[in-house]
């Protein structure tokens, strides 16, 4: 058994960095070193470094939350090395030690060290995977929500939040005549660069309006679309790594084989040559985002309620059932895809089949309960726009209408065997209350303009939706799909 660290690298029998890590110098500061950053952006840099490139783009991780102390402890003990384990659908594990993270700072203990690193001219990119919550967006107004940022807004305060650090560092760089870094959000938020810019500028404006102007005028915020399913690491993952490969790693990362990163070429200066390791560098990320929302995300909704009602509990079970696969491909091909603008460089047919393969990977163990949760955030953003565009163009909507009906049926709160369904949604009470009247008033569920706009008054949609709902009630989900 070998403990993972620099000294142990020679002794492990899995792929390790091919480069001399002592020659790697920091160029990126990353906030939010969790599973996803380590499976995605750090992996791409590691691949470049293995080719002898980007050695001046080493990553310094920063954790700002109290719980990040654990990552600090593990990474420090391992010389910032960790194992990325790709889980193939046939059960094969493909491990590789990643070396692109060269340091990790725990901000609550080392705020000045974090600022020094951020202000250092060698830091040319500050990247973020701080989850949606880290952007402080008020979900109702879309404007900055300052709760949790009060301490950082006080004059002269030592920063505590990611926003506090980024803005203070930009102020210090400006004062010292050092050009600003590029802020690269890699969170799963449409228009992530736009959102980062808007929220950081609003925060900076509350501290110093001229700093906000500087940020808006001088700092680049590339948008990007990121994709790679990276579940939370479990003890079983740690045990499997040590049992199969003899590597003791305090916090390995597991992920699916697929990975995608579509990145807008909007950097303040030089950037790593990401395109040399498969990153798609583009002028406009939006078509790729729409592709992901309307094919990947909407398909998750297309499979989760119908799958659950049919008795399945995992996404891979559904996607190993031909009836469902045909339905999903039908949705994607006939309804989702016609609403997409051209997506340069992507073979959409291949992408659709790849999605089915990814969803069918039994190693990922994605639960339908997770996919069914917070539907009121998902269906209106991912599927309703497809329905609207298809209706406007006079094209097919029967599968999308069935997906909405399956949500309505799911929200009734009992499955086809009469077992209770735990509906998880911030609008749960309202949804369940409406859905329970589905049988006597078939339009009740979709008569909510906040969620569905005016779909309840579109005759074509209403016809398809009510027929689908009736069929779900009378013959159930599986037979409805068979009849489709
Ligand atoms: P994770 O829980 O492993 O890591 C999240 C990291 O963000 C932690 O370091 C945490 O401390 C930090 N963080 C959370 N809230 C913060 C805040 N308010 N301010 C500063 N830091 C904060 O999660 P993950 O799987 O790495 O996912 C992180 C993000 O990556 C997601 O929210 C999503 O936007 C994106 N992403 C994840 C996946 C995936 O499959 N896991 C796929 C695509 C994109």
From TrEMBL:
The record's EC number reads 1.1.1.17
Superkingdom to which the source organism belongs? Bacteria
Checking PROSITE patterns in the record gives: MANNITOL_DHGENASE
Q: Which UniProt keywords apply?
A: NAD, Oxidoreductase
Domain (Mannitol dehydrogenase C-terminal): give its ranges.
284-472
* Gene Ontology terms, MF aspect: mannitol-1-phosphate 5-dehydrogenase activity
Q: Which reaction does it catalyse?
A: D-mannitol 1-phosphate + NAD(+) = beta-D-fructose 6-phosphate + NADH + H(+)
BP GO annotations: mannitol metabolic process
Domain Mannitol dehydrogenase N-terminal: residue ranges: 27-272
Top EC class of this enzyme = oxidoreductase
What the record says about family reads: Belongs to the mannitol dehydrogenase family.
- PANTHER family, per database record: MANNITOL DEHYDROGENASE 2-RELATED, MANNITOL DEHYDROGENASE DSF1-RELATED
This one is known as Mannitol-1-phosphate 5-dehydrogenase
Task: Name the source organism.
Answer: Kribbella albertanoniae
